[in-house]
Amino acid sequence: MTSRIFAALTRETDESKSDAEPVRDGDDTVIADEPPVRTDGGTVADSAGDASNSTVGDDASALDRLRRSRFLESIPFWGPPAVLVFFFVYGAIAWNFVISLTGWEGLGSPDYSSLSTEMYTRLLSDPSFHAAFRNTLVLLLAFTVFSLILGLLVAILVDQKIRIENTFRTIYLLPMSLSFVVTAIFWSWMYNPSNGLINEALRGVGLDAFTQAWLADPQFKLAAIIFALMWQFSGYCMVVYLAGLRAIPKSQYEAARIDGASTIKLYWRVIIPQLRASTMSAAVVLVVFALKAFDFLFVLFGVNPGQSADILSVMMYRVAFDRIQWAYGSAVAMVLFAMTLGVIGPYLYVQYRRGEL
């Protein structure tokens, strides 16, 4: 019994010694334990080893990851367009701003040695700029608001599952596919005081006293422009609102009906508040198109629509290319750009905060 216990103790002592001894090869050369290898190619240094091997491995793995990343692989696809946009869009905007700080008339080379805000000071004292700025604001607000209201009403009507829904929706949206030039020519005929459709219709129902020279009378000129643009873009609002209406669960309609809500209260308190996203997206698009209405007014009136219908884009063209005052026209263009940025910027910020960008 005693001999078996002594033999077991002796065997455990020998095993512990063998674990502690270093591994030797046939020439009694000590072979050091290899450090563990990481899966990314680097090595793990022990507390007493040299940490430079770990740093080299990390750098190599980082370069390897960058070389194999999708970012580098995608550069040939988005790189050239990004360079072109940066140069021809943002570079042109920056150059336009610099031109507005000079007194360049369009001939010769601009003098960049003395930059000033003289052109912007001149804008503040120019009555034609005041009229164009006021008309632009009226056009933006009236066109956007009335187009949204009309589009919403038509969308609610179409949402009632009318029999000719698809045909009506296609016809109502069709004017948006037309260019501003085509729309302007069409409405110049509609507003013709002699044989235009509007005046002929008024005469046909015995309302001769209401016939007007719609595009010549300063009192009706801007209103006629807003009405024509509403005709062209209210169909877009209808489509946006219709998509929003059909995204609302039918259970909400049924719950409101059970609670005794009338049709007006149903839409005013339950349905319309849920269309805020549709309203915002449609309003931004309408504002952008209103700021781009230069083609429409240029075809109707040329470079001189008069103070009652003049807008900033037409004034910019008239000053820069008709009067050859490029620095002053650049200043008008920067004001128009600031207005556009003031509309698009908050919208993009809200979309970013919502995580939709």
From TrEMBL:
Region described as Disordered: spans on this chain: 1-58
GO cellular component, one term: plasma membrane
Biased segments, Basic and acidic residues type: 11-27
Major location (coarse): membrane
Transmembrane segments: 75-98, 137-158, 170-190, 222-243, 282-304, 324-350
InterPro entries noted in UniProt: ABC_transporter_permease (IPR051393), MetI-like (IPR000515), MetI-like_sf (IPR035906)
Location in the cell: Cell membrane
Topological relation to the membrane, as annotated: Multi-pass membrane protein
CDD domains, alphabetized: TM_PBP2
SUPFAM superfamilies hit by this protein: MetI-like
Keyword hit for Membrane: yes
Alphabetized PROSITE patterns for the sequence: ABC_TM1
Keywords for this protein: Cell membrane, Membrane, Transmembrane, Transmembrane helix, Transport
Organism domain of life: Archaea
ABC transmembrane type-1 domain span: 133-345
Family to which the UniProt record says this protein belongs: Belongs to the binding-protein-dependent transport system permease family.
Protein name (database record): Carbohydrate ABC transporter permease
